[in-house]
Design goal:
Layout lengths: L1 H12 L3 E6 L3 E8 L3 E8 L2 E4 L2 H9 L7 H16 L1
C-alpha cells in the first residue's frame, strides 16, 4: 500500500490530477498516469472507483479496501483543496 500511496503523491505533486466535476454527490477526476495515459477516478456515495487495470483487477477482489495510485493522487488533491477552503 505504501508504494501506491507514494506513487499517487508523486502524481499529485506533478500536477497530474485534473478536476472534471466536483459536487457534493459526485466527484470525477482525470489522472494522467506516468505510463499509460489518463484514467478516470470518481467518487459517488462514498465509493471510489478508478478505470485503471490495477484497480479493475484488485478492486473486484478487495471491494472497499483497495486504493490504487490514481485514487491516492485524487485523495491528496481533495485534501489540499479542503485545506485551502
Amino acid at each position: 500500500m505504501a508504494n501506491r500511496m507514494h506513487e499517487g503523491f508523486k502524481l499529485y505533486k506533478k500536477g497530474h490530477v485534473k478536476i472534471e466535476l466536483f459536487d457534493d454527490d459526485l466527484m470525477i477526476f482525470n489522472v494522467e498516469s506516468s505510463k499509460k495515459g489518463n484514467y478516470q477516478v470518481s467518487m459517488n456515495e462514498n465509493v471510489w472507483l478508478c478505470d485503471c487495470d490495477d484497480y479493475q483487477y484488485r478492486g473486484d477482489k478487495e471491494v472497499g479496501s483497495f486504493i490504487c495510485k490514481h485514487i491516492w493522487a485524487v485523495l491528496f488533491k481533495v485534501m489540499d483543496m479542503k485545506s485551502k477552503s
